[in-house]
Design a protein that fits this description.
By secondary structure, this protein is mostly beta strands.
């Protein structure tokens, strides 16, 4: 118990470095770029300051260790947004605040693989602090091969970073966001206020669209494109 109290009463930080220099990338199956990523994860014990005490900060530093200059890099930050019981969640975004988020899709957070919050309805958000959110897309459910499932091949990853579904269709601001034939394209999935029924969200899919079903979700938030010369860093 004393050890637990000691941990809780301190600020904490964890630092790690990853790169693609030697091992093949078995997720996207793309060539190695020679990019090194430094990740600093840190928290503050500030019980009296709620928005600080309930925040996990993550600082990413990308270092170009190759001899190539990369232009128009599109970087996305993927989060498996399990909110309590992970099987009944919705996704949303707030481009004006550079935030994407997940929240419980009904009035009861059930137990799905992890313990739910019951009637204490949870949510979690990811905010870009020193860069603008340039797009947001996400999957619903674990199924593979469908238009809105998590990416599994190189083209899927490329599509997501360009605000498009696995089948290359753009996000459109109605229903689930995947609507062949519609032209109301957007870079941000479910970008409306969930408390405003006239704005597009997972809770409010729009007139003549079926209600969305809460599920296990994950989201990819993109930052504005940038270039990286040999030895250059991007935070």
């Amino acid at each position: 118990a004393a050890g637990q109290m000691c941990i809780r009463d301190r600020d904490r930080a964890v630092y790690l470095v990853i790169n693609d220099a030697t091992e093949p990338r078995t997720g996207s199956f793309t060539p190695n770029l020679g990019i090194e990523v430094h990740i600093l994860v840190y928290v503050f014990n500030q019980a009296a300051v709620k928005h600080i005490d309930e925040t996990v900060f993550v600082r990413y530093t990308l270092v170009n260790r190759s001899s190539k200059t990369y232009q128009n890099i599109k970087a996305g930050f993927y989060y498996d947004l399990d909110v309590g019981g992970a099987g009944d969640d919705f996704l949303g975004s707030d481009p004006g605040s550079n935030i994407f988020y997940a929240y419980n899709g009904d009035n009861l957070d059930d137990n799905f693989a992890a313990r739910g919050y019951d009637t204490f309805i949870p949510s979690v958000g990811v905010k870009m602090i020193n860069n603008s959110l340039d797009g947001f897309i996400g999957y619903t459910g674990f199924g593979s091969g469908s238009s809105d499932s998590r990416p599994i091949v190189n083209q899927h990853y490329f599509n997501w970073l360009n605000h498009r579904w696995n089948d290359s269709l753009p996000i459109t601001a109605s229903g689930k966001g995947h609507n062949p034939g519609l032209t109301n394209e957007t870079k941000f999935l479910h970008h409306g206020d969930i408390q405003n029924s006239s704005e597009w969200s997972a809770l409010n899919p729009g007139v003549n669209f079926a209600s969305n079903i809460p599920s296990d979700v994950g989201g990819l938030g993109m930052v504005e494109p940038f270039s990286l010369a040999p030895g250059e860093r991007k935070v």
